[in-house]
Every structure is written in structure tokens, then in C-alpha cells.
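Posting this for the archive.
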Amino acid sequence: MNPPLHSVELTGLITCADENDLHILKRHLPQHVKLTREEPGCEHFSVEQTQNPSVLKVSEKFTSQAAFEAHQARSQHSEWGRNTANIARAYAVKDGGAWWALVPHVLGKKPIQAQLGEYAFPGPLRDKLVAAILSGEKTATASVHEEYQRFGEALPTVGELEIVIDSDAKPVCITRNTQVNIVPLSQVTDAHAVAEGEGFKDAAAWRAGHIAFWTSPEFVESMGEPVVEIKDETLVVLVSMEVIAITAAVPSVEG
């Protein structure tokens, strides 16, 4: 029996460095869109201008990995691919249950597998944390070590990529881990607390805020039984990260 096919979805941004880039893109885009939509396996393809005229939003969906790879190969060797190769792109690719980062000017031409970055739970807190990551205020995060053990997930590693999603499950940026430490809750430093970008002035304030979250009904329910006991000896996973690419247009704020 053949394995079931699953669709591949891509979302992200094309960013022009100057007017010349934008001129090249506009000259070759109509034919690229036409040829892509005619490809077998293309379910959806759009390239739309954002509020920033130099940034375009890309959305693609193909019926299978084979169809997506065929599109990538054709595009790379087309007039579009040759003439726009030096224009920056940043894409998040969802292939079944797996996520990939495609950022040619940073990571090379091939997609790199990434983890899914889900901060807190969908809602106001996640929106706040994601906004802090995008603004550069949040360069660190923490989780309970027991989460990885209980759900059989691999611990984060230095150099690992994450596709960060918002409350609507939309990929907004790609981050790369720069440091990973596992320490008891009592040993989290003031420096890490401040780097989390949530307004904590020191480790004591950080501990109070995180204990409140890790003992909240929503978190307790998500972990299941037995209830995770949060105390000074509880191991926490501390991750420092950097944003390497933005994959969703950030609305401009007018003063």
C-alpha cells in the first residue's frame, strides 16, 4: 500500500533591498505566477504586496512533496529564479507534520528542518510573547524539563531552528538557539530573567511569574497526571535565541 499523500504549504516574505530589486521582481512576477498556477499539483499560489511596498507576502500550497519539489526545481532554473536569486526570501514550510525553514540568503538553498515554536497558549499571553520576540525584547525563554520527558520530545540544542507561530497558528518568524542550559529553578539568574523580555527585573520576579504559569489550571491540564510539582529543585530548560528571519508582515505603527 502506498503511503498517504499530504499537502505542502509555504508562507513567508520576499524583501527587496532597493528600487532596482523591486523593478526586477515586478517585471518577472506575472509570468512566474502564471507558470506556477499551471503546474500539476499547485492548489494555491499568491504573491501580494504588504503595507511596505518593498515586502511581498507569499502563500503556496501543493498537493504533495513531489509537486512542491518539482515547483522549486522549475522556479530555480526559470527566468524568475535566475533574475531574482539575490533578492532575500524567508519562508516557513509545513510538510505534513514537519516544519522546515527556507531562508536562502542565511541558510542556503535547501530547506532546513525546524521545530515548532509555540509560546504559552493561544491568546493574549502568546501574542505578547511573540510581539516581544519580533521587537527584539525577548531573546530567551524557559520551560519545565518534565515537559520533554513526559511527551517524549527531544531537548532543544544549540543551532536548532524554530518556526514561531502566533495565536492563529501563523508562522511569524524563524529563530535559532544560541545557548541551552538545564538548571534547577532556584539557579535561574537575573540576566536570564531580564532577557526573557517580559518585564522581569530579577530572578525572583521571574520565578514568581513562571510558577504562576506552571501551576495555572491550563498548564496543569495540558501536562496531565501526575501534577508536576514546582519547587526550587525543579529542573528548567533555559534557551537563548536569535531571530534570523521574519516570515509574516508586521503591521506598521503610526505615531
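The beta strands are 8-15, 42-49, 55-62, 88-95, 98-102, 112-117, 140-144, 161-165, 171-184, 235-246. The chain has nine helices and ten strands.
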